[in-house]
Design brief:
This protein is of the alpha+beta class. It has one domain. It is built from 2 helices and 2 strands; from the N terminus they run βαβα. The chain has a two-stranded parallel sheet.
């Protein structure tokens, strides 16, 4: 009845930099972080920009995040970017 398809997005509150968003991605991708059969492969990470300053910087932050290169053995951060 419920499963992976219930949750499509993980909202990262107080996103101020690329590292805030990528930290959530890295933690979610760690082995054992999910009890779902397929893991969290389909989960999208959504930054929440909560101040005017964060909103003004949002375009640049998202561009830098989507351009980030993965480290060995990690999932590509660009895979979390939906354009």
């Amino acid at each position: 009845m419920f499963g992976e398809e219930v949750v499509e997005s993980y909202i990262v509150s107080m996103t101020r930099g690329v590292d805030d968003l990528l930290a959530a991605v890295v933690l979610a991708r760690r082995p054992g972080s999910s009890t779902w059969p397929g893991g969290l492969r389909g989960l999208g990470f959504v930054p929440l920009f909560e101040t005017a300053t964060e909103l003004r910087a949002a375009g640049d932050l998202l561009a830098r995040c989507c351009a980030s290169r993965p480290t060995a053995g990690s999932s590509p951060p660009a895979a979390t970017c939906r354009r």
